[in-house]
Amino acid sequence: MIARFPASIQTAIFRSDAYNMLLGQTSPATIRIPKGNGGFSTAVISYAELKKPESTPPTIEQDGQFRWLNNSNIEAILAWPVISHWLSVHDTWDSVYWRADILAARLTHWLNAFDGISAAIDPDAQQQWGKSILRHSRHLGRAPIDGLPLWRKFIVHQGRINAALALPEIEPALEQYLTSFGADVDRQIQGDGGHLERSPIKALAVLAILTEIRDTLLGHHIEPPRELISAIDRMTPFIKGLCHGDGGFALIGQSTANTATLIDAVIKATGSKGRAMTSAPHTGFHRLRAGQTTIIVDCGKTNIQDTALSRAPGAFELSVGKVRLISNCGARFGDDKNQQTWARVLNSTAAHSTVVIKDTNAGPVTDVSVNRKDHEGARLIEMRHDAYVRAFRISHQRAIYLDDIGSDIRGEDILTGGASQPFSVRFHLHPNIRASMVSGGGEVIIKPPKSRGWRFTSRDPVMLEDSISFYDGVQHRTQKIIILGNHEPDETTVKWRFSMQR
User: Fold this and answer.
1) What is the pLDDT of residues 18-42, one digit of tens each?
2) Domain containing 42: what range?
3) What's the Cα-to-Cα distance from 338 to each of 335, 360, 465, 482, rounded to whole Å?
4) What is the pTM of this model?
5) 237 and 386 belong to one structural domain
6) Is the preceding peptide bond at 246 cis, omega within 30 degrees of 0?
7) How far is the C-alpha of 344 from the C-alpha of 311, rounded, in Å?
8) Cβ distance 100 to 137 under 8 Å?
9) C-alpha angle 6/8/14, rounded to 5°?
């Protein structure tokens, strides 16, 4: 009922003494710890938030999610003072700490840790904590989730389901919670297994949460919603398809490369054996694989309007075996005053291996066409998008060809329409790669640390410049290859090539 009111009225209700009384001042009859919750989603969620996982209790809880409680080795003597202080300060509604996703994360971590910690504290403290858990659970059922990042709504669903399984007072709402959860799974998980936000790490966080919810329901002998099982089966191949040979993610959508362990843990927990996808047409990614060479290309539309999303139509990454050659710049871990500035830089089009017109970020992709051809082991992907049409009336078409043994990669970028504009074609190198210009220009020698070298060539002017990489969330120096040009109507074509040295 409260959810139907405007946000200003909801806030007034939640702040009122009457609402505080409605949440109750009694402890639950019992707390049944949800079964089957492995807690492996916590570390993935931290990576999706660009924060390093917490494992030790802070002096004072900062963000209200209590992620560090996921560490089963934490002693009650260290954990309870932090929880107790929180209860003394924040046990009434607050617009930040009682936001649905933050409250739900806190509730899930509290429930998972309740048995271990409550056994070591006195009965009055147990009653105090139990009362707060029940109050949290009652509010979570009414808390609005409109306006939350899409992927974080699953944190709310998990908290609500856990509360209904743990508390007899909330149990009658379980069927409603499962129905709402199943509907959100159908809305957010696309037919190819991708998530609407088009971020590999956020998709992995969602998959981890879905797997935990499945295991929790099965642990209580409850049949999971059909939407849940279907989504897990679709998402696993999608996740695998966005990984390079080293097992980590391509640097797309604020993902980092040091994710192989997380990915392995989640996929193992799903129990799914699906092979890596080669084409995700709904989400807009393609994977080209030949020999030991892997190319991952962004060919998608902009599904949601979010200024925090990367603007990188046509961007690609290239790896050979476990060695990454061409990359995007990645995402920065941190929660300091510089984080927003760095986020704008790293989400920009220029921070990706694609075409940039007049040093301007690409706009939303509302129209895209993709044509893929696989023939006798060779791969060809062609895509055209409208991300620069609104700003410059220029359409960009990119084609990437990979030969059947993975040693020859040929690319073509075509700009069509509009007026005369400067542009650049960027290829960011991984920090472990060294590159040098060949005298006379037009060629760059690329030297991986152990495997064979590569030669980059183009008939257009080529430069080798300094760049940066946050492949593991931390800043590293690297280099980038740039082709500079000036688009002249009606059409400009740039051709480039990577060839393995014999």
Assistant:
1) 999 999 999 999 999 988 777 789 9
2) 2-276
3) 8, 22, 24, 27
4) 0.95
5) no
6) no
7) 10
8) no
9) 100
